[in-house]
Write a structure and sequence with these properties.
The chain is an alpha/beta fold. The protein has one domain: Alpha/Beta hydrolase fold, catalytic domain (Rossmann fold, 3-Layer(aba) Sandwich), CATH 3.40.50. The chain contains nine helices and eight strands. An eight-stranded mixed beta sheet has the order 1-2-4-3-5-6-7-8, with helices on both faces. Strand 7, helix 8 and strand 8 form a beta-alpha-beta unit. Helix 3 packs across helix 4. The radius of gyration is 19 Å and the shape is globular. The protein starts with a helix and ends in an 8-residue tail after the last helix.
Length: 301
């Protein structure tokens, strides 16, 4: 790409990418990135994979908590999300998310080659995290999953609905299904309001073609579960209406990992890290403690 054209590329919000932290993925699309660095030397790296329709900026509170424990946190807006390029919340192949995650992780581990790497994923970001770790199991010290998308909700995945979705995906892939109802994101009305008013979130309907990619990701995960041996920690609310908790139980039961943990929050909704303040605080403490327990002891004073 000529330098002039490269310099004139702008985010969906109209900001030139030369003014934004970004990487360029294998398809030549610019992905907006965020980096949260601890005050002192980092003890580990944590890559955050955000959920469908949202963006990585909403993880600033999670990142700052991890920073307090000398963890270096980084993330990007997936293709078609937030301040990244790409058709809004649509993708030809779910594998693109995984490929981009590995590219970004490789970039940062190149700068900090001796540090252990963790992935933290929420919702669809949970599915991305699982499949990323499955692709390179030896590269990751552990995976944290908050309300992950592992299985499709049973009522949306009946054989007839799956068949219908496949037919529609071929005939009218741009057809949109329902939108995400913000009231199921959190029990905290302030968080629901923040979600609704955030212009970087996608508030439109989900395309049939995108739904098919989520289904294929869930099928891949189900196939991979018996082969998983890496450490993981799942946190899930038992009133989550957006990602079925049954998938979290399935992964906890079927994975071969000897280091695995599932914590269920009674009455909690989908975004545990943005649920009622006491739940969100507990989640941040639990996640920090779990990662720290898996780090080598700090050397020197």
């Amino acid at each position: 790409m000529p330098e002039e054209a490269e310099g004139s590329r702008r985010s969906p919000q109209g900001v030139p990418y030369r003014d934004l932290q970004h990487i360029v993925n294998a398809d030549g699309l610019h992905l907006f990135c965020r980096y949260w660095e601890p005050d002192g030397p980092p003890r580990a790296l944590v890559f955050i994979a955000h959920g469908a329709g949202e963006h990585c900026g909403v993880y600033a509170d999670v990142a700052r908590t991890l920073n307090q424990h000398s963890l270096y946190v980084f993330a990007h807006d997936h293709v078609g999300h937030g301040q990244s390029e790409g058709e809004r919340m649509n993708i030809k192949n779910f594998q693109i998310y995984i490929r981009d995650a590995l590219q970004h992780i490789d970039l940062i581990t190149g700068r900090y080659p001796s540090l252990p790497v963790f992935i933290l994923g929420h919702s669809m970001g949970g599915a991305i995290s699982i499949l990323t770790a499955c692709e390179r199991p030896q590269d990751f010290a552990g995976v944290v999953l908050i309300g992950p998308m592992i299985q499709m909700n049973p009522e949306s995945a009946t054989p007839f609905k799956v068949f219908l979705a496949k037919v529609l995906s071929h005939m009218i892939p741009s057809l949109t299904l329902g939108t995400i109802d913000p009231k199921w994101v959190s029990r905290d009305p302030r968080q629901v309001e923040a979600y609704e008013s955030d212009e970087l979130n996608y508030h439109g309907g989900m395309r049939v073609s995108f739904g098919m990619q989520l289904m294929s990701a869930a099928t891949r995960i189900e196939r991979e579960l018996p082969n998983i041996t890496w450490p993981f920690f799942i946190l899930h609310g038992n009133e989550d209406k957006l990602c079925d908790i049954g998938g979290s139980h399935l992964m906890h039961n079927q994975a071969q990992s000897t280091d695995k943990k599932l914590k269920v929050y009674d009455g909690a909704y989908h975004a545990l890290h943005h649920d009622l303040p006491e739940t969100a605080e507990s989640v941040l403490q639990e996640v920090s403690a779990w990662i720290l327990e898996r780090l080598p002891a700090p050397s020197g004073p």
